[in-house]
Each structure stands twice: as structure tokens, then as C-alpha cells.
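User: quick one, fold this
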Amino acid sequence: MASLKPYFPLSIGLVLRLLYGLWLGPDLFANDAIYYVEEAQLLLESGQTSLYWPPALIYLLAGWGWFWGLSWGSCMVFMLLWYIAFDVLLRKADHGLWPSYLFALYPVFIHHSVSPLTQLPVAVCLMAVYLLGRRKASGWLSGLLLGLGVLLRAGTASVLPAVLLRRTPSQMLSIGLGLILVVGAWLGIAAAQNDKFVPVNTANAYNFYLGNNPWTPDYKSYWLGSHDESQNPAFAGFYAERDSIFALAPSAEGQAFRDLAVKYIKSEPTRFVYRLWQRFKLFWAFDTFTAATVQERSPALAWGIQLWEMICYGLIWGWLFLGWWNQSAQNFAPLLWPICYMLPYLLAFSHPTYHLPLLPLMVLMLPRFAGRESLRLLPKKITWRQTIWGLCLLFWCYIQIEWAWSLLS
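Assistant:
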């Protein structure tokens, strides 16, 4: 029985995900998931995709669908394979089985383990790249996995400085070559299909514009990307300007959106800086994705899920802050990973869901911070490092309260 103990959290996680997926059924294709599945089906039928969405998940789904089809049940099994890989990597954390249990029970990770979305695969790629770096393993595999992460979500490229930190020149070269091999191959395919250079996918320019125009809400900067305000007179100018760009040739849209966003940033630099601050806060707020997904089916259950979501998020951050608080020697190098990862979202628009790939990664990194030291909440002498982490904890609490207030008001 003791030999089976490490697999208990994985078993619990798989059962919960199967029950949740079977209960949700076709609604697993809600939000962006339906677009990835439709693009995968298009790829199977015509051999091409629209280039709007990042390609990796679409191609992986198409490969899976070629054998097993693209029904919601088939796609659920496909994502459960990612969850198994996720749990295997998570057990590399130096904290026993509690991370596996917590993420097995974490509602948003349950949803992303059965719905075809990119957050969980990106988390797997980041965790694998980090663990390979900690083992000083060959850089080729790190580069290939990082390339896969970039093709899952283009913003993942921003972690490259963190990946290269403290690597030998030969490892840096092999990481770079592996990354170029994967991403470069796709860029060639996309350029041939679009008759011009495409930076992974065409949505990136539009997203940059969505977060940087006169009508973008300062706090909920994601709003225009996920909500239809076409009947709201306050946003009439946005839809008129956006539609005028959509009327251009597809090859000209990206540059037009980038030009408008840059023009606005230059005309309102103070507001751009203010929006950066607001995006930073929203990035680290608790997630509401799963509760919103089940709201129509069961409002009461949605409230329960949201409460448990907040508890799970608080437990993870409480453990992280406790570990950082008790470290004897500060090592800020691992913090470069989340700092780099969030940069693209600060420049475009932010949403709490975007922090999901970083949570398991930071749990993996915690041994670098705290090791196996005894945890002391009230040491005899509080150091300047502990003062900083204490202030960070208070600020994190403020972020959650502000976000909760914005949802209720």
C-alpha cells in the first residue's frame, strides 16, 4: 500500500476530472476551447488553419483527432494525458504530496485538465524546462520544450532570459538552436501561408490593440476581448475603429492594429503606465473561470466552487510566502521566471487566468528559496528581507480584496 501512496492524489484528480467532464459534457468546448477544436477540424479537412490562434494545441488536437476524433469526450481524454504529465512533474517538488493533492482539488486546474485550452500544456512545458535546468541537463530538450510553449502561447518566449540564466555557453547555444528549430519551422509555414512574416499567430497584434486604445477599461483591460459591447454607445468608437481595420486586407491588419496601439501609447504615456499597474494587480488576482463556466448550470454550485477556488489559491500563496519568509539566504534568480512571463500581458491586457502556468512552477521553485528549514512565523529578529515579504503578502491580500469588490460592485 505504501508503494501506491504517491499515486493517490493523481487517482483522486483523475476521478474528479472525469466526473466534472462527464457532467459538463459539450460545455467543455466553452470560451476559447471551441475555436481550438474548430481550427483542428479545419486543419484535418483542408490542411490549413486561420493563423489567428497559436498553432501548437491546434496541431496536437488535429493529430489526436485523426485517430480518435474531436468529440468532447475524446478531447477530454487528450487533456487528461497532459494532467498526468503535470502531476508527474509536480511530484518533483520538495514538499511531499501536498502540491499534488492541492492541484488535484483546485477547480480551475480541474477545468483546464479536461477542456482543450493552452494553460495546462504551457504549465507542463515551463515545469519541464525548469527541472531540466535544475539538473543541468542538455539544453536541446529545454529548447524544444520552450519552443513548444511558445507555439502554445506566444508570450512564453518572454521567459527565455530566465531559462538562459546561469547556463553555460554551450547550453545556451543548444537551447537557442532547439528553440529556433521548433519556432522557426512554424514561422516558415506561417509565412508561406500568409505571404508575409507572422509572429507565431495574428491575434497578438489585435490583443495589443485591445489593451491599448482610448476605450480599454483601465482595470478590466481584458473586457473588450471577451464581452460584446457593440450595443453600448460608450464603445461605439472602438467598434467603428476596429471594423475599419478588419476591412483591410488580412496581411495589413496586424501592422494597422500595432500602429494604432503604439500611437495611443505615445499620446497617453501616463495612462499607459497606470494601466500597467492595474494589469499587474489583475494578473495575480484569484481566478473566476470555472465558477463562471458552471454558473448557468448551477448558480449555487458556482458559488461553492468559487469559494473553494479562493481557498486553494490562498493556500498556495500562503505556503509560498511562508517559504520565502523563512529562507536564510535570498535567491532572487527564480523570481525572474514569473517576472518575464507576465511582461507580454502587462503590455497587452491581463486576466487572472493568465497566472495559472506560474503557480505550479513557483511551487517547484520553492526548495531553492526555503530548502528544508524549519518554518518560523515569529523569529526573534525580523530581517529586512522578511519585512519586504510581509509587505508583499499585505499587497497580495489587497489585490484579492480589490478584485472581489470589483466583481460584486
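User: anything notable?
Assistant: Confidence is low (pLDDT under 50) at residues 368-374.
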